[in-house]
Structures are given as structure tokens and as C-alpha cells.
Design a protein that fits this description.
71% helix; globular; mainly alpha; 8 helices; single chain
């Protein structure tokens, strides 16, 4: 095992949480087939591929090299993987809510608030983990404040880039995703709210990782 990768077995709670989240995403896949929901079908397949691929990397590549370690470290963190799985669980489920058979994203104007909040929470967690491991590996000695600063900056870049991608898609292949500029600003704000709440949680609980002292 690489010296910079401290392997930690899944606790019972983590094991159950991760397995349950993946199972629910699979049920969403079944639901999409039964109710003929193309969007949920595509998204559930994507989610399952991402989650199962990540778990496969952990199993078949247990000793990552130093060059790639910071960038793939979120895959090896049990807590981060649970957060990713829970994000996909909510995101895919809301595309066609069971029993109601309603796509909350398209039926309700503010239906994507939950998705963007959880998306911001998830992406910040990934960026913070990468920054933390990069700091450790390269002896940067970054404080929690620095890690939060870099991860929030990365989140802003990704958030703005995503909105531009949505805009381009709405003008070409996906006209139904067109939305006013104030909605796009709201989406970015919601991502930051999710990220902010996760930042507070990580600083308070030291889970799924410990960023150290604030200063």
C-alpha cells in the first residue's frame, strides 16, 4: 500500500449507506424503463457507470502513484463516495419521482434548487479533498482556510462553465433547458449554499476528512 494512501475499510454504516444509495439509483433505472422516461434512463445509467467505475478503480488499482494520487483521492475516500452516491440518488430520482411520475426539474420552475444545492455540496467536497491531498503530498502545509478558498474558487469556475454549457445546449440540441439569466445566477448561489453548509459540516465534524486548523 502506498505510503501516502491510508486505507480505511468501510464501516458498517458507510457500507450500508453506499450500497443503499447505489441500489436506489438502480431502482430509478428500473423505474425509468417501466415508465418510459428517457432522461431518467440516460442519467441513471450514467450514475451507475460512474459509481461502479469508481468502486472498480479502488479494487483494481489499490496502490495509486504519487503523480495521480491527489486527483483521484476522492475515489478512495469512503465518505466522499457516499456523498457522490447520495447526490446521484436525489438527482436521478427527481427526474421521475416514483408513484407521482413527475419530473420535478421540468414541471416546477424551482425544481432544480435541490439538485444544484447537492451538486455544489458534492463538487466542493471533491475539490476540497483534492486540495487537501495535494497539500499533504507536496508539503504545502495549507490551512483549512486555504483549502476552502481554493475549493470554492474551483466550484465557481465549474459552476459558471456549466451554465455556459447549458446555454449553448439550449440554443442547439436541448431547447427545453432554456432559462432566464436570473435562474442561472440562482443556480450558482444554490451551489454555494450547498458548498457552504458542507464546509461548516466538515470543519465541525472532521468528516469525511480533516482539513486541519482554520488558520
Amino acid at each position: 500500500m502506498s505510503e501516502f494512501y491510508e486505507k480505511r475499510k468501510l464501516s458498517c454504516r458507510e457500507d450500508v449507506a453506499l450500497a443503499l444509495a447505489i441500489f436506489v439509483v438502480f431502482l430509478d433505472f428500473v423505474n425509468s424503463v417501466v415508465h418510459d422516461s428517457p432522461t431518467q434512463f440516460r442519467t441513471s445509467i450514467f450514475a451507475l457507470v460512474v459509481l461502479l467505475f469508481a468502486l472498480s478503480v479502488r479494487k483494481f488499482y489499490p496502490n495509486p502513484s504519487k503523480k495521480v494520487w491527489p486527483w483521484i483521492s476522492p475515489i478512495y475516500d469512503n465518505g466522499v463516495m457516499i456523498i457522490v452516491a447520495v447526490f446521484f440518488l436525489f438527482h436521478v430520482t427527481l427526474l421521475n419521482v416514483p408513484i407521482l411520475n413527475v419530473d420535478l426539474y421540468n414541471v416546477y420552475e424551482n425544481g432544480d434548487i435541490i439538485g444544484h444545492s447537492l451538486g455544489g455540496l458534492m463538487m466542493w467536497t471533491i475539490f476540497a479533498k483534492v486540495a487537501l491531498e495535494y497539500s499533504k503530498l507536496n508539503n504545502k502545509g495549507w490551512s483549512a482556510k486555504t483549502i476552502v478558498k481554493y475549493s470554492m474558487g474551483a466550484l465557481l469556475i465549474i459552476g459558471v462553465l456549466w451554465e455556459f454549457i447549458e446555454l449553448a445546449a439550449s440554443l442547439t440540441i436541448l431547447p427545453h433547458v432554456d432559462e432566464p439569466i436570473n435562474n442561472k445566477i440562482r443556480d450558482i448561489i444554490m451551489e454555494y449554499i450547498g458548498a457552504g453548509l458542507m464546509t461548516i459540516a466538515v470543519l465541525k465534524t472532521k468528516y469525511p476528512f480533516d482539513m486541519g486548523e482554520w488558520e
